Description:
alpha/beta; 7-stranded mixed β-sheet; 14 helices; 15 strands; 19% strand; binds iron/sulfur cluster
Amino acid sequence: MTGPLLEVESLRTTFVTDQETIRAVDGVSFSVAPRHTLGLVGESGSGKSVTARSILGLIDDPGRIHPDSAIRYHRPAFVQRIAREYPDRIRWVDGDCDGADRDGSHDGNAFVTIEAGDGEGSSVTVDRGSVDLVAAPENVVQSVRGGEIAMVFQDALGSLNPVYTVGNQLGELLGIHRGLRGGAATEAAAELLESVGIPDPKRRLKEYPHQFSGGMQQRATIALALACDPSVLLCDEPTTALDVTIQAQILELLARLQRERDLSIVFITHDMGVIARIADSVAVMYAGEVVERASVGRLFDHPRHPYTQGLLRSIPGLTGEVDRLPTIEGSVPTPNEPPTDCRYAPRCPKAFDECEMVHPEHVPAEEPDGSEGTGADGTDGSEGTHVDETDGTAERTGEAAERSEDAAERTGDVAEHTVACLLYPDAEPLEERLRTHRQRGDPGTAPDAAGADATDGNATEGER
Ligand code: SF4
């Protein structure tokens, strides 16, 4: 299959109380190709985990996913099964599908989109299409959860039930989702434990989670996530609580499982070192928004957003010999204030007046060679983060660039490099840049109308 397996577009998840509205995720877009690893990186409070929980429909009251958001799952066999179950909820489209006419009068209830297929009713076939998990009924989302997209949580012990053996927990899942019982379920459970590197699996099945070490507990949660043979694994900081040796083992395990099972992975972390090791492409999140997207090689060699540059500067070994590592002063804002400006402005060393007046939109990042930032690269390293060649991190960032190329070759997916900052496109004068961002924020705005005076701070079109 070509194209993305999972596509998130303009995802907005809010928590509404009597006192306030928390915009935990505000307009996040990214996609994950088959057999590809996307790193979602950012500080605590940037909205990474809420994004993952939104994909699986795990947002509890008072949380809401905005109905204009889209989470499209593209595996053709799944889309075909759902299309046959819901023949009156299908929208057929020719060519590109951007979801724009999802609310069209004739198919306002449609949540299955077929771009290439044939037939109708219970014999419809789908070669290319998607199911929108935001618009789909709860039972469809339930069948995606675990069976198509599974999640590995940070707190391994907390996500295992302490009063059941690991074998009971795996057996229950295998019974519900794969119809396995008795000896067949035990065999399958032992195979799963073996596949995640747990020795003597038959004996371990009879043990309780507290009898496992931290690393073994995390392996067991990965086995649980794999029990229903998902296509996408959402890993929410699965290595944060582990020491570096065990962390490396879990990362190697995930890479092996990805190869063996053709998995796509969304890997959530605040650790850029982990991103360098495991990701093919990266989306950097700040205060509920994605501020930069790129292949991992591009991002490490040519970070464009001041926040990404700050994150990379704070990695030991990446900035050469220093007495004191640079830090990003301040903290992520509570996302309950109106989103009217660049949210990074209070902490940004490059902020200027207009950053408080215009919301930055994603624009292509121009690379040092003058090209627009598309693709896995073999960059010259002449700009961006200076790598200390004596440090292991240098090796990892070298691996990262190589992996970008491998990923592009493997999946045909070339991560576009875009950045949401008013410094870009840096070839344009300030007034032109502001007009570009206003226009992108409101595509219906004509360039001239958008910025009668682009720098006076009074124009409201395109601002959010
Ligand atoms: S828009 Fe302004 S404040 Fe925001 S990151 Fe860019 S330079 Fe910094």
